[in-house]
Amino acid sequence: MKKLLMISMLLFSTISLAKTTTITFTDQMPTEGNLVLGVYEGGEFGPIGQKLDQNGDISHAIKAAAFTAKIDSTQLIVAPKDSDLDQILLVGLGQKPNQEGTKNSALDWQNIGGHAIQKAVDTFKTPAIFAFDTDNTDALANLAYGTKLGSYYFDKYYTSNKRIKTQAEITLYAAQATAAQKSFDNNWNPVANAIYHTRNMSNEPANIIYPQSFVDVWTDHLKGMKNVKIKTFDEKDMQKKGMGAIYGVGKGSARQPRMMVVEYMGGKKGDAPVVIVGKGITFDTGGISLKNPSNMWNMKFDMSGAASAVGTLYALAGQNAEINIVAIAALAENMPDANAQRPGDVVTSMSGKTIQIRSTDAEGRLVLADGVYYGDVTYDPALLIDLATLTGSVGRALGKDYSGLFTRHDDLVDGFVAAGKASGDEVWHLPLNDNHFKAIENEVADVMNSGPDAPGASAGAAFIGTFVREETKWVHFDIAGVAWGGKNQAHNGSPGSTGYGIRLLNEYILKHYSK
Question: Quick one: which H or E segment has residue 203?
């Protein structure tokens, strides 16, 4: 056992924890280098643009380029002759606010910031100062949040500096720099850091992140945070607790399964927590039911739900939210060695219910069966949420635009739909009814994990719901279509992990459960 511990510590020591980008506001007018300048429709400026445009050079360039300044539009121009600036990237801010306030939503400002940093990195290749004329502190904080999210790029393994896109620091000019910095640091920076850590975790290859190293890395990130406690169950603990479902998935790998339980008790003592359980398959070969090899490399992302579950807790703890949260990461590596479970095997879950294994590639719902049951009966939660890259069918149905939302409690749907629209992590309500639960009944065991005559995503949701008490408020998110992607988005400049779920759950939980 000591030898295994030493090996684990040695491997962990080789994992470099990437630093997140630092956002700094300044009220010192930029005088040199490259500048990103926000412009309202009609070529209107605030005080910053007016100072730079004293000779009318910028206004002339806007007219000459027919720059409309609509949201997401950009235009590169030469800096005024009488300044020491090099080049200016104009960024459209949309309509200028009237006396009633800003016309852009929080998400609009975030997307403006995200698109601006990505365009600036591609255009200048070196850091630039960002200047946006708005006296709305919340708008500035949201701009900074979007800029930080949009600047993310997983370039850790590039050996050529020419390919590096990460910017360690970003400076934003604003007349209200102090107030904007405070708003950003208190409300948005913890969320952005959580998304950075979550993306890094999911983007790492499976030889770096596996069940124990997942625990080690998140433990390091959570170190020193107030009101946070961590406990971890290993394979022996799982056997003692009767967690035959998660243990069965992980026993075919040399890297044994783990269940990481993180508690953040920032709310009133005794208040029921919100429990978030994440599927954490650190690599999925399909087991004995081996996957097609062509896209198997993508299966390093199969632990995205677990990463986002812990990431959401990290975000809320970083904001010192007055709420009780528990994150559970159900971690296993699904491999086809001599000890792996087989199609036709029967396992007993922690709940006591038996499961016939029809396909060892339907393993995510197995680790979640023990994860959600443990979270339900241990914490008696006010709300139980699970996040899982569960089925290909949900991705085919909803594409990259939405995660699938399933629940027995339809009164919860509208709140999550609204939170999705506000945060950018959108959801779509899909059906879950009695027929889906009947479809997973089995002639050998209580339920089967695959093969029912029912829509795959709904049957998967029903399987997980089987291990949640009916009176417990529960929502299942199938994030298989949105957990990773191959194209740039305003909130993510890097192919790979999106960190989906953190923005959604942060928005929903703060609105509905924070004191």
Answer: helix 189-203
Low-confidence ranges of the chain (pLDDT < 70): 1-14, 16, 98-102, 486-487
| Beta carbons within 8 Å of 314's beta carbon, 6+ residues apart | 190, 193, 194, 197, 218, 221, 222, 225
Alpha helices in 337-478 (DSSP H): 364-379, 392-398, 413-423, 434-439, 456-465
Active-site annotation holds for 408: no
Asked, for residue 201, whether it belongs to a domain, the answer is no
Same domain membership, residue 250 and residue 182: no
- 250 and 334 co-located in one domain: yes
CA 269 – CA 228 distance, rounded (Å): 14
Give SS3 for 311: helix
Based on the fold, state whether residues 73 and 149 are members of the same structural domain. Answer: yes
- The active-site residue out of 255, 365, 408, 503 is 365
Q: Could you say which of 165, 291, 400, 473 is catalytic?
A: 291
The answer to whether 367 and 246 are in contact (CB under 8 A) is yes
pLDDT score of 9 = 45
Residues 177 and 219 placed together within one structural domain of the fold:
no
Q: Are residues 127 and 226 in the same domain?
A: no
Q: Which range marks the domain in which residue 138 is found?
A: 22-192
| pLDDT at position 7 | 42
Whether residues 164 and 247 fall in one domain = no
240 is catalytic: no
The pLDDT value given to residue 273: 98
Spatial separation of the C-alpha atoms in residues 133 and 96, rounded to whole Å? 10
- Looking at 139, 158, 192, the residue that finishes a domain is 192
